[in-house]
Specification:
The chain is built from 22 helices and 16 strands. By secondary structure, the protein is α/β, with parallel strands linked by helices. Strands 5-2-1-14-15-16 form a six-stranded mixed sheet, with no helix packed on it. Strands 6-7-8-10-13-11 form a six-stranded mixed sheet, with helices on both faces. The chain has a two-stranded antiparallel ribbon with strand order 3-4. Strand 1, helix 2 and strand 2 form a beta-alpha-beta unit. One of its GO terms (molecular function) is endopolyphosphatase activity. It is an enzyme of class 3 (hydrolase). Belongs to the endopolyphosphatase PPN1 family. This is Endopolyphosphatase.
């Protein structure tokens, strides 16, 4: 693979001077022009491909030096050690600029002409990992400018930007890290300029106010919303919560409510993106609880609009399920109820050690999920009964079955969040390409064609529409207040301290499920995960050497990586050709067995991950799982799971092991589980998984969580 058109970050400022041609004149995304770029589709109308790129956490480090130490407080800046040409994989060192350049050039050569848009979820500056080279605000902003310019150049042709890019803030894109004060402020104003190529002009005012905006990546069909999750992040000491009207988090959700309603009225759908994800287990969380509560409520109310949610920050490949049964209005409305959170905040820089405990807690939570397979069967049988015996008579029983546990046949009780692994090689550098359904949209005008047509016509007259929307929002706010007053009961009056929150309207009665719940245009079909095997590409470490083992020297604060004690085999770097390769794809993964990325499909996968091997025998894993064989990793699992696989071929009639219709028994069982698990849950997991046995699907999930950098034995030791 040739890399002739290299975009060097350290030379981007002088390069840009040759192809930036003035200020934007329309409400579209500002278009760069670059003489050196060409494209097979640059002079003809682009078509939708039904694919988009998610890239996150580049963490470029201009001080990174090859063959330096990966140890704590050195961070690949000096000394002697195994730091490779393209990065020190499996360590906490940041990315050399060579890795960022190589990544963007690989994307330009292999993905640019095959994708419809890009979501870029933040952290485009180095960590503050070296006391001898502290971070400064001007350096952080300068690096973000360089990266933004490189993105604009990568996704442009000779006429300008051809692929819309939607960025969002990372907690390391500001100084001090994690701390962002309410807007307007100098940071937001500066990023308005840094991202002028990507933020629609008519939204720059709201971006300066709060750091939020959206882009219609498929005009009149699909918008990507860039959320400023720093106002939700529990580590941001500059803000308090999302409950009080004076807080930027409150204002952010108010803005989101208005815009999603606008999407609904226009018949559009939305993808939500952010940096810090709404990660939340029984014992840990990343967001302030009031923000998580509002987010979950908003997604429930706009479940007909939201296609999916995509985040970064955590570096590990996994997904989340928000449960709407956890919605508690005492966390949402100011002055009502208690707000003390029972969860501890997940550390802002996720170490390997904390990742292990977090994933185990996630699995524990998933072990309690209802079985979506059984829920579907119950719902179907109840539906047949209703047809013959009347809806009223059997409605009550149906409610107690799978429907009440899943939220209907499409599992609308739950919401789905995807968290992509990072480019920074804490594991291996990663990219993700999602595929989505474009049935019936094949001839829809693309973003670039629409923008260039508008440019030629002198631009859209959208300002009046936005002003009208703002006025309409104010009117709707008053109407909602009156409605809430009218519907108040005695209990409401007793807890009426503080202002009440405008609650989004749910889908109209009879509205079909949205793309997140039922396959239709814009539904996420699957994704392909790419990774760069830096151990092979750097060509510096002898993997079978006897100069030490390959285990990490890690602590809760720093990980020196697998090769911390090894010496490079070349005095001067001799890297192999850089390329990303497929790590896995959900389209043919024989263990995950995902037919799509709807909530129900992912709920079933989460349920399987949460079960023990004996539970898997009860119809949770289909017969083909026992036939899966893909090298040493799967063979080792198969050797230990032979008995379980034999059971899997004969599913039990009682697939769930508990009565779906007896919710009281469920509650009592849950109470017993909680009592039993109190005070020693972590220790049990750290001492050999006495509570929950390893299964094939769990180990497979872990393997990908750590981007194929861990052996089977290491995964079993979690």
């Amino acid at each position: 693979m040739t890399m002739k058109k290299v975009i060097w970050l350290w030379g981007i400022s002088s390069l840009l001077a040759t192809f930036v041609i003035g200020a934007p004149t329309t409400g579209a995304q500002y278009v760069l022009q670059q003489a050196s770029h060409d494209s097979s589709q640059s002079t003809s109308q682009r078509k939708l491909h039904g694919r988009f790129l998610h890239i996150t956490d580049l963490h470029p480090d201009e001080y990174y030096k090859v063959h330096t130490s990966t140890e704590e407080n050195i961070a690949c800046h000096r000394g002697h050690g195994p730091a490779g040409y393209y990065g020190a994989e499996t360590s906490d060192c940041d990315s050399p600029l060579e890795l960022v350049n190589a990544t963007l050039n690989w994307v330009a050569a292999n993905l640019k002409d095959e994708i419809d848009f890009v979501v870029w979820t933040g952290d485009s500056a180095r960590h503050d990992s070296d006391e001898e080279i502290p971070r400064h605000n001007k350096d952080i902003l300068a690096m973000n400018q360089r990266i933004a310019d490189a993105f604009a150049a990568t996704f442009s042709d000779d006429k300008g930007l051809v692929v819309p890019v939607v960025p969002t803030f990372g907690n390391n894109d500001i100084y001090p890290h994690n701390i962002l004060l309410p807007g307007p402020n100098d940071i937001l104003k500066t990023y308005t300029d840094v991202w002028q190529n990507f933020i629609p002009e008519e939204q720059r005012h709201s971006f300066e106010y709060g750091g939020w905006f959206y882009v219609e990546v498929i005009p009149h069909k699909l918008a990507v919303f860039s959320l400023n999750t720093l106002y939700f992040f529990d580590r941001n000491a500059g803000v308090d919560d999302c409950m009080h009207p004076s807080e930027p988090g409150y204002k952010h959700f108010d803005w989101l409510r208005v815009q999603l309603q606008f999407m609904r009225e226009r018949g559009m759908k939305a993808i939500l993106i952010g940096h810090v994800p709404p990660a939340r287990t029984s014992g840990k969380q990343l967001w302030d609880e009031t923000c998580w509560q509002k987010y979950t409520l908003w997604l429930q109310q706009y479940r007909d609009v939201v296609v999916g949610s995509l985040y970064g920050h955590m570096n590990i490949d996994h997904f989340l399920l928000q449960d709407t049964k956890d919605i508690d209005f005492s966390y949402i409305e100011s002055g009502s109820g208690q707000r003390a959170s029972i969860r501890e905040t997940i550390e802002d820089e996720i170490s390997i050690e904390s990742s292990k405990d977090y994933l185990i807690e996630l699995r524990d939570d998933w072990s309690k999920l209802p079985d979506p397979v059984q829920g579907r069967d119950l719902e179907e049988s109840e539906g047949k009964k209703k047809k013959h015996k009347g809806k009223k008579k059997k409605g009550k029983k149906g409610k107690k079955g799978g429907k009440s546990k899943l939220g209907g046949p499409f599992a609308e009780r739950y919401q789905l969040t995807f968290i992509s692994p990072s480019v920074v090689p804490n594991y291996f550098p990663s990219l993700r390409v999602f595929e989505y359904n474009i049935t019936g949209l094949e001839d829809t005008p693309t973003w670039v064609d629409t923008m260039r047509t508008l440019n030629a016509q002198g631009g859209p007259s959208s300002d009046s529409e936005w002003r009208e929307l703002e006025l309409r929002d104010e009117q709707n706010l008053e109407i909602e207040k009156k409605k809430k007053k009218k519907g108040k009961g005695k209990d409401d009056d007793e807890n009426s301290k503080g202002p009440k929150v405008p609650i989004p309207e749910p889908p109209a009665k009879g509205t079909p499920p949205g793309p997140a719940y039922f396959p239709q245009p814009l539904t996420l079909k699957g994704f392909t995960q790419y990774y760069a095997n830096l151990t092979y590409i750097n060509n510096d470490i002898t993997t079978d050497s006897d100069d030490g083992d390959d285990e990490d020297v890690s602590s809760w604060s720093w990980n020196a990586g697998k090769h911390w004690n090894k010496k490079p085999k070349h005095a001067k770097p001799k890297p192999r050709e850089f390329a990303y390769e497929v790590e896995y794809t959900t389209f043919d993964d024989k263990i995950y067995k995902l037919k799509d990325l709807t909530v129900r499909s992912m709920l079933r996968l989460a349920h399987r991950i949460g079960q023990t091997s004996s539970d898997d025998a009860k119809g949770l894993v289909s017969q083909q799982d026992s036939d899966y064989d893909d090298g040493e990793y799967e063979n080792q699992i198969d050797d230990d799971d032979d008995d379980d696989d034999a059971e899997e071929t004969e599913p039990s009639d009682d697939e769930d092991g508990e009565s779906e219709s007896d919710e009281e028994e469920d509650v009592e069982a849950e109470k017993k589980k909680k009592k039993k698990g109190k005070g020693g849950k972590k220790k049990k997991h750290r001492k050999g998984h006495k509570k929950r046995k390893d299964t094939k699907v769990w180990l497979h999930f872990l393997r990908h969580a750590f981007v194929s950098t861990r052996s089977t034995d290491e995964l079993r030791d979690l």
